[in-house]
Automatic annotation (TrEMBL):
TM region positions: 80-100
Keyword Transmembrane among UniProt keywords: yes
Keyword Translocase: no
PANTHER family associated with the record: LONG-CHAIN-FATTY-ACID--COA LIGASE, NONRIBOSOMAL PEPTIDE SYNTHASE PES1 (EUROFUNG)-RELATED
Protein species of origin: Listeria rustica
Pfam families: AMP-binding
Domain AMP-dependent synthetase/ligase per the UniProt entry, residue ranges: 41-377
Protein name, entry field: Acyl-CoA synthetase
Domain of life: Bacteria
Keywords on record: Membrane, Transmembrane, Transmembrane helix
Amino acid sequence: MFNKYKPLNLYTNFAEASERFPSQAIYFDEPLTAFPELQLQTTYLDSKNALIMKATQLQKIGVKKGEKIIVYKSAKFDTYLLAVAISYLGAVPIMISAHLPAPTMDILVARLDDPWMIFDGDTAAKAQSLKNLPASKLIAVEEILATTFDKLCEQDFLTPDTISYMTHTSGTTGVPKLIAHSANSMGWRTKWQKNILSLIRKRGLVAFHISPVHSRFNIGISSLMAKGFPLLPIANPSRANITRVLTDYAPMVLETHPNHFVQWASLAREEPAVFQSVKYYHSTFDAINKETMATFLRCSEYRLPVFLQVYGQSECGPMIMRFHTKSTLKRTNARAMGVGMPGLTKARIVNQDGKPVAAGVSGNIQMFSKGRALTYYKETPRFEENVYGAWWDSGDYGVKSRLGGLSLLDRQVDLVDKIDSTLAIEDALLDELTFLDEVVIIRGKNGSPQPIVAVNESAEMNWDLWWKKVSDLPHLNEPILMRYDEMPRTATMKIQRLELERSLQNSEN
C-alpha cells in the first residue's frame, strides 16, 4: 500500500503522469476560460502540451523565475492548470479565491511584494480597482491567449525547500493568512493521499467539486494523476448541473466539501439514481453529519460502498481518517473522526497550557504532520504562535478515546457557553430534520446559543418538528431563518461563524 516519498513539483508530476498515462481522459462540465483549446474533453498528454504553451505565453508577457503570480479568477480547473504552468517557469503560484473582496486583496498584494496577478471576467472589476498593484502587473486571461511566441520555453526549477506554492487560510476569523508550501512539504501530503488511493484497485472516473485554490486541490489532482485516474472536475455545483453531469458520466468516486454534500442530500433522497454509480465518497475539510453520509451510501448500486471522512487543515494537510459503510454508520458517532496515518500524521489533546491530557478529557487538538506548511508568508510570528515543537495547534477543540480515536467538538474560537459541542447538536438536527440544508449555532444575545438555519429550497420550515427535536437538547434560542446562499462562507463553503455573529450583533444594535 505505502508509496515512496517524493517532493512535489506540480509540473514535473503532471508531465510524468502524462508520459505514463498519455490517453487518460479529463472531462469538464464547462469550457475553461484560460484553456479553451481543451474544450469539454482532453487527455493528460494534450493538457500537458497546453500547459507548456501557457507557460511560454506568460514568460513572453514578462513572468520570470522566482516571481510570485496571484491566480485570482473563476473557480474552474484552469485555475489549477495555470498554477502548473507557473510552476513550469520556476515561478510561485499564489492561489486566491475569487470571492475575496478588493480591500482584502489589497492587503494580500502588499504582503507579496510586487506580484503579478492573473484575472478573468469574474474578478476583473476587483482586480482593476486595486490600489497596491499597478496595471502593468495585471494579466487578463485574454492577454495570455493573445500572446504569440516563436518557440516553447524550457522548464525551470526551484529547490525543494524553497517556497513554491501559496494558498490562503479560510478567513473565518479575519483577513486570510498566506500559507507557504514547498515541494518537500507538499510531497509528504501526496504520499498520504496516494496511500489512500492505493486501496482503490480499479481506475474508475473520479468526479470532484473542490475549491481549486485550496491546497487540497493540488494534492488531490497530483495524486490522482500519479495513479492514472480519469478526472471529472465539476465547476458548477447546482442541483441541475450535478444531476446532468453525474447521470451522463457515472463516476465511481465523488468528492466535495461537507457543506455541498449536505446541500445535495435532498437530491440524493429524491433522485437516488443520480448517485448510483458512486462506490467511494470522499469528504474533507470538516466533519459531516451521519445521516448525510448514510443518504449517499444508500444511493450506491454497489454492495459495499464507502464514505471516507478526512479531517485536516491547510497548514498540515490531510490528517485523520475514518472509513464509513452503511452498517458502521448505524453504531458510530459522526464526531469521531478516526485516526492518523502511521509515520505521517497523528493528533493529541492538550490543555490551555499546552500539556497533554488523559484520554476522555476534552481540550485543544494539536497535530503532527510531516507535510506541515513552512510558515505564513510575512507573518511568521503568527505561525509560530501555533507551533509546539513538532506539534501544531489546530485551533480546534476535541477529545481522544482510550483507543486513540479523535473526536472533533468545536473550533476553539466558536465555543458556546453551557454547550459541550455545537457541532454535535448541529449534526443531530441535520440528521433528523431533513428539510434543512444548514444549521449553525453561534453566540447570540448575552452569549446564548443562537441557531441559524437554512431550509431546503423545495421544502418549508416545519416548526413542530423543530421544537420536538430540540426539546431534549440544551436550551437554544428561537432559530433565525436565512437563505443558504446568504450565509457568509469561505472558498471551501465553511460558514464564517464570527461574521454571522457580527451581523447578528449589528442587527440588534
